[in-house]
Amino acid sequence: MSLFRVILSIIFPPLAVIDKGCGSVLIVFLLTAAGWVPGVIGALIILNRS
Question: 3, 14, 18, 38: which could form a disulfide with 31 (CB 3.0–4.6 Å)?
């Protein structure tokens, strides 16, 4: 996980996980729509998982 990805996940979470697949983008987008903080946490978890 690079510093650029971490900063991108804080600013716009769905864009940070764009290369992880359609499901990851959809999950993070829905979490971001529900609230910014859950979207950031979801993006960081997905980025840290690989």
Answer: 38
> Interior CA angle at 40 toward 22 and 49, to 5°?
60
- What is the radius of gyration, based on Cα positions, of the chain? 9
Which residue in the block uniquely carries the two structure tokens 């910014």?
Answer: 36
pLDDT bracket for residue 49 (50, 70, 90): confident
Is residue 39 a contact partner of residue 14, using CB atoms and an 8 Å limit? yes
Does pTM surpass 0.70?
A: yes
Coil, strand or helix at 6: helix
Cα distances from 50 to residues 4, 21, 33, 44, in angstroms, run: 16, 12, 24, 11
